[in-house]
Amino acid sequence: MSFNTFGKLFRFTTWGESHGPAIGCIIDGCPPLIQVKEQDIQKELDKRKPGQSKFTTQRKESDKVQILSGVFEGKTTGTPISLIIYNEDMRSKDYKNIKDKFRPGHADFTYFKKYGIRDYRGGGRSSARETAARVAAGAIAKKVLQKKLGKKFRISAAVTQLGILGCDTTKWNDKIIYKNPFFCPDNSMLKTWEKYLLSIRKAGSSCGAIIEVRAKGIPTGLGAPIYSKLDADIASAMMSINAVKGVNIGSGMNSAQLSGEENSDEISLNKKKLKFNSNNAGGILGGISSGQEIIVSFAVKPTSSILKSRKTINKFGKNTSISVRGRHDPCVGIRAVPIGEAMLSCVLLDHYLMNKAQCN
Amino acid sequence: MSFNTFGKLFRFTTWGESHGPAIGCIIDGCPPLIQVKEQDIQKELDKRKPGQSKFTTQRKESDKVQILSGVFEGKTTGTPISLIIYNEDMRSKDYKNIKDKFRPGHADFTYFKKYGIRDYRGGGRSSARETAARVAAGAIAKKVLQKKLGKKFRISAAVTQLGILGCDTTKWNDKIIYKNPFFCPDNSMLKTWEKYLLSIRKAGSSCGAIIEVRAKGIPTGLGAPIYSKLDADIASAMMSINAVKGVNIGSGMNSAQLSGEENSDEISLNKKKLKFNSNNAGGILGGISSGQEIIVSFAVKPTSSILKSRKTINKFGKNTSISVRGRHDPCVGIRAVPIGEAMLSCVLLDHYLMNKAQCN
Amino acid sequence: MSFNTFGKLFRFTTWGESHGPAIGCIIDGCPPLIQVKEQDIQKELDKRKPGQSKFTTQRKESDKVQILSGVFEGKTTGTPISLIIYNEDMRSKDYKNIKDKFRPGHADFTYFKKYGIRDYRGGGRSSARETAARVAAGAIAKKVLQKKLGKKFRISAAVTQLGILGCDTTKWNDKIIYKNPFFCPDNSMLKTWEKYLLSIRKAGSSCGAIIEVRAKGIPTGLGAPIYSKLDADIASAMMSINAVKGVNIGSGMNSAQLSGEENSDEISLNKKKLKFNSNNAGGILGGISSGQEIIVSFAVKPTSSILKSRKTINKFGKNTSISVRGRHDPCVGIRAVPIGEAMLSCVLLDHYLMNKAQCN
Amino acid sequence: MSFNTFGKLFRFTTWGESHGPAIGCIIDGCPPLIQVKEQDIQKELDKRKPGQSKFTTQRKESDKVQILSGVFEGKTTGTPISLIIYNEDMRSKDYKNIKDKFRPGHADFTYFKKYGIRDYRGGGRSSARETAARVAAGAIAKKVLQKKLGKKFRISAAVTQLGILGCDTTKWNDKIIYKNPFFCPDNSMLKTWEKYLLSIRKAGSSCGAIIEVRAKGIPTGLGAPIYSKLDADIASAMMSINAVKGVNIGSGMNSAQLSGEENSDEISLNKKKLKFNSNNAGGILGGISSGQEIIVSFAVKPTSSILKSRKTINKFGKNTSISVRGRHDPCVGIRAVPIGEAMLSCVLLDHYLMNKAQCN
Predict the structure, then answer these.
(1) Secondary structure string (H, E, C) spanning chain C
(2) B56-114 pLDDT tens trace
(3) First to last CA, chain A
(4) What is the dihedral sign for C-alpha A135, A137, A141, A144?
(5) Can you give the pLDDT at residue A196?
(6) Helices A336-359 and D336-359: angle between axes, nearest 10 degrees
(7) For residue C150, is it left (φ>0), alpha (ψ between -120 and 50) or beta?
(8) Which residue does chain A place closest to B299, by CA atoms?
(9) Which of A334, B350, C6, C335 could be stapled to D227 by a disulfide with Cβ–Cβ 3.0 to 4.6 Å?
(10) B208: nearest CB among A255, A291, A318
(11) With an 8 Å Cβ cutoff, are A117 and C33 in contact?
């Protein structure tokens, strides 16, 4: 069971509401003797921190993380690591006027129907604020992978499609991603994307995005068929991110249109080095990593909280309309980039440990 | 942990290899007092049975299921239900010539690298034959859902894209799906698809497919945020099916291209009846069912075992080539239709039980 | 997997070290709409609080609990409940002189061997301080059970044997338990026990104890055969408490000496009321509650940290000796009383929810 | 969740009823490349086979096990191992006269109340027949442990108390255990026990027993605090065996009566060899193995199915009496010996794998 826990051997449990006193997570199953500093986690958190550009929510959160347990004299001890981030800029009053209304496209309606109660302030538990806790967990997963897999290991993520505009992924440049407000890997698209997103913001609308996550240096053999296939766990991880509606591994949905000979990645050996002629599989065959780069992408739907007026009902069963004025991202997809990176790190570490248990 | 087990409260564990003596599954957590006959399961199994048309593998399997436990005097007792299907038409010799080669696009290479050993006969455990066991489990899930949700509950699945050819899903007709060899829901496409698939078969090639699964009559409130969101569990379920590379909920990957106002499904009440103006969400908001129809689709890559010669290596580390002559489906996606139906049934029942535990 | 998580549907995860900044727990799967105040939890925590009598450790901890999430406007929301207790009286220097030595009978040696590192301050994670977090979780479980089972539900625990001295359990009086420093249910033994424990304390020694936990008003049908039998889960729960070495259900170890006719509890109906003539089964048959009172007992070994000098080795592999001067309970078993109560509450609620899911 | 599944990384799921067509189990998570033959499993099954002496049930079962999957060319492949044992001597008619009555001390009443239906033939799922499936799983766990831990590893179990008669465990002799009908390790007690058990059988009564299980050659570091402590998992494992009512680790319940200095096992080094001066801890400190011999004991209550007439009720709510004539063991505890051995093997392997994942 895993309502608020993710993972099997490397497990994290997140807690906290958007406008409660704090959010946080507990990491259980982390190997001991890994060097972890608050700064390692902070670095990752800063990537998804709100208020960094005009294209993300203006909520001001320093998102300072504290380690409360599990690290002793700078090293993990193998016991649970408790991380806490206090909430700061909680303008709960922004939500008073929508407390009885269900925002279309939001979890408001379903949370209320399921639990019979909901913390309406900022979406409560359903807020994307929860993802800060995952990014913190992912930062620790990354530290472990770096130690276990060495320098070959490399993970990165970027927005590869902003609304209707794609980018050229063959121009992928890790170094620019977190240096532009769209987390775009292709320098040549920055201007176009900026213009596009400004127009959307101005219109009080929003757009969706596609995020791609890539991991290099992953050993062959990670993945536990049949129901903990590496790709099945990745799909679950990505789909658990707020607003995600689709997940692709390698060629993904597009593989339906390929022929058998186009799709199957030919294998050859050149000077004892294994080579695949293509990577439609996204680095995963039969649910197990093949040693190729792991390639995952997922779609984030457009922000549902928009200025434009939308028809809805309230909790008293009356028809009404809503226009959300709070502080919102015109494209929530952008901040999903470090989250995708964190989730993939966690899944990979989890499978690394599982494989170590059963097969090495 | 769940290497070969799927589900949380309604759990099934599958076992068996393509060319071993039998395959089967154990269902644990099934509610008691549900009427189940072997015939109920057989009916579903017959849908994915090989050898039914020239478009599916010519392997002859009667796929007769036997109930070995958990049903007493025609009713489930709440104890584990053990189902067994003996393998019959096992031409293992077909595989002798490829026993040391890794078929590109197959799990051959990764299983061997992970475990250091593999049952090469027909793909062993990685064979799609395993899915018969899931269909059997799904048949029981369906019986339980029918009893618990009543007549409103309805689940169906179909191929909505065959290779490069789509169909018109507004013409969806449940009644024709299992009466045509492509499990197509749109009568108008049958001729075109037949011609297309014949040409692919003749060329010794294969094609992919997109399968869509729909469920009606699902109550509001199923889904357990954050990491057992209904959509996260569905994504994991579908991605665990052999050859699946992408999963969409509702508008799926396409939602990246929608604007906020196009995407968010407006809500209204008409004579006390709740109405959503659209269903981009695929019936799931914040990981919880909204009461709308659940809509899921997934892409199945083209069959990797093809006649056309492909470059590969063998287990001795030599370059070689391969051409697979066995009995294979030109489009494995077709037989994934009842599997998708089964997996969704299992996920829905699982969440129905979880919701019953926590919230009702 | 459950390194630091207990439970299946009602799950809590504890974290924190004896001398770190704080300890706490996350409760996941709690039903919504349960009224919970910090005071409800504090009341239970105060029972196990150190420093309340001369027979328990003199460490001063106010053990003030704070609710950080999952409760909104006084009611649970169905989302994770995060509880935190800050550590206060951390005299870490008390432990400097034993930081390299392994205390016999302690987890020092095994933690160091397993993890290659240990937080030696007060036992770190292996300290009984962790149990405060469980008591907090148990307080919430109790609130849920009270709402779900109504007034019939009653749980209580007591020390029934202090070292070599038993008490008369037929004189069990709930009201006096938390009013005497030994948490003894039998008024007639208080004087004798006081004299006995004073002599042990004076000698710089310690003694063990047996704790009995009883629960009334438990419905028939809780328990999930075979491997989540109610008694199997209770045994696991109790054995997970620090220093526990044995667990009995009903007649327990003593049942080996009974004859078949003495042991099997005869059943009869009197005016439509079911009656068992005895309760050797401790309220559990075939792993399922029978409707009788649940009776569990467990043995807590004597405190291993004693003044008397003991032979041991240090982490450099040298023979040495140790005498522990810190603040310790002469009988740790006493403070295990509220812990046993908390653990049984959690197991019962967990099975209540599981039974609701599968069978009601 | 684990209704009928035991274990975390090495998991087995059992299925089947006493008088159904077969029983069996699926083992998931077994490491690959372990040599396993049906004969390895059969050898263990033969130890608990009924009908081997006049002191065990006269039901005739050859209990022939078949491997249906997961083993290829004599070696495990890392995929699920399915084992089946067909039932043979099913005299269901023996149970007709008790089909509506609840046998006191049995699971009859609770199964019926929980599920609303029960397979009354021979106890159905609650029959001790289920334990054959565990013994089969344990046989495989033992093979893995033998390969991983080498020759130092040794596990054995025996009856150390038969009803009111103990034996001298310092005279423990592995070689005689399965050569006497009481699975007694002390040669000097055989005559006395025989006389005693004959008298009980003659009286139509039954007696309980205490079984002790010992494991040598277990490395330091197995066990996952806090809630998967090695002893907590052992307690759960043993308590899940039919008719078990108490579990001790090392000095167990008796440790309550020891003083701190008697109880804590002193440690010393002699020529670089670690030595504990005693083993009250039963080889486990803080939930982690210390490298000492693991010592576990558990009590099995007397057989509830006895000839002597007992008061009970039937399912129509009427008072009645019952006298069970079927084929029953005068002391079911005896056949629990190989079961205890199997369960401990499974727990140890499970923790061996968990430790490998997190700590090595």
Answers:
(1) CCCCEECCCCEEEEEECCCCCEEEEEEECCCCCCECCHHHHHHHHHHHCCCCCCCCCCCCCCCCEEECCCEECCEECCCCEEEEEECCCCCHHHHHHHCCECCCCCCHHHHHHHHCCCCCHHHHHHCHHHHHHHHHHHHHHHHHHHHHHHHHCEEEEEEEEECCEECCHHHCCHHHHCCCCCCCCCHHHHHHHHHHHHHHHHCCCCECEEEEEEEECCCCCCCECCCECHHHHHHHHHHCCCCEEEEEECCHHHHHHCEHHHHCCCEEEECCEEEECCCCCCCEECCEECCCCEEEEEEECCCCCCCCCEEEEECCCCEEEECCCCCCCCCCCCCHHHHHHHHHHHHHHHHHHHHHHHHC
(2) 766 677 899 999 999 999 999 999 999 999 998 766 666 777 889 999 999 999 999 99
(3) 27
(4) positive
(5) 97
(6) 130
(7) left
(8) A253
(9) C6
(10) A255
(11) yes
Closest residue on chain A to C82 (Cα): A15
Q: What are the residues whose beta carbons fall under 8 Å from the beta carbon of B125, sequence distance 6 or more?
A: A225, A226, B16, B17, B18, B111, B119, D69, D77, D79, D80
Q: Are C143 and C347 in contact (CB under 8 A)?
A: no
What residues form DSSP beta bridges with A212? A158, A297
pLDDT in tens, C15-58: 999 999 999 999 999 999 999 999 999 999 999 887 677 777 66
- Tokens for D306, please give them: 């006895």
Contact indicator for B230, B352 with CB cutoff of 8 Å: no
pLDDT tens digits for range D256-311? 999 999 999 999 998 889 999 999 999 999 999 999 999 999 999 999 888 888 99
What is the SS3 assignment for D96?
helix
Distances (CA, A) of A53 to A49, A136, A178, B189, D201: 10, 21, 12, 49, 85
For residue A228, give Cα distances in angstroms to A7, A286, D349: 10, 11, 21
Supply the mean pLDDT for chain C. Answer: 94
Interface test with D, best of C255, C296, C303, C315 (most D CBs within 10 A): C255
Report the distance separating Cα C59 and Cα C129, nearest Å: 11
> Residue A326 burial by CB count (10 A; 0-12/13-18/19+): exposed, middle or buried?
middle
Dihedral over Cα of C266, C270, C272, C275: its sign: negative
Those residues with Cβ within 8 angstroms of residue A112's Cβ, 6 or more apart along the chain or in another chain: A102, A118, A315
**Of A8, A24, A72, Cβ closest to residue C82:** A24
- Joined tokens for residue D325: 């004539």
How far, in Å, CA of D13 to CA of B13, rounded? 8
**DSSP-based helix, strand, coil % in chain A, nearest 5:** 35, 25, 40
**D32–A79 CB contact, under 8 Å:** no
The token duo for A136 is: 């913190």
For chain B, residues with pLDDT lower than 70 are 1, 50-51, 57-59, 90-94, 326-327
> What's at A204, amino acid-wise?
G
Q: How far is CA C3 from the centre of its chain?
A: 17
Distance CA(B60)–CA(B42), nearest Å, equals 16
Looking at residue C91, its pLDDT comes to: 66
DSSP E strands, B229-266: 244-249
Distance CA B31, CA C220 (A): 17
Phi, psi values for residue B85, rounded to 5°? -130, 115
Quote the CA–CA distance of B25 and B140 in Å, as a whole number.
12
What ipTM score was computed for the predicted complex, to two decimals?
0.97
With contacts defined as CB-CB under 8 Å, which chain B residues touch D5? 5, 11, 13, 28
Q: What mean pLDDT value characterizes chain A?
A: 94
10 Å CB burial of residue D113 (0-12, 13-18, 19+) is: buried
pLDDT at residue D352 in the model: 98
Give the pair of three-digit tokens for residue C198: 């004073």
pTM of this structure? 0.97
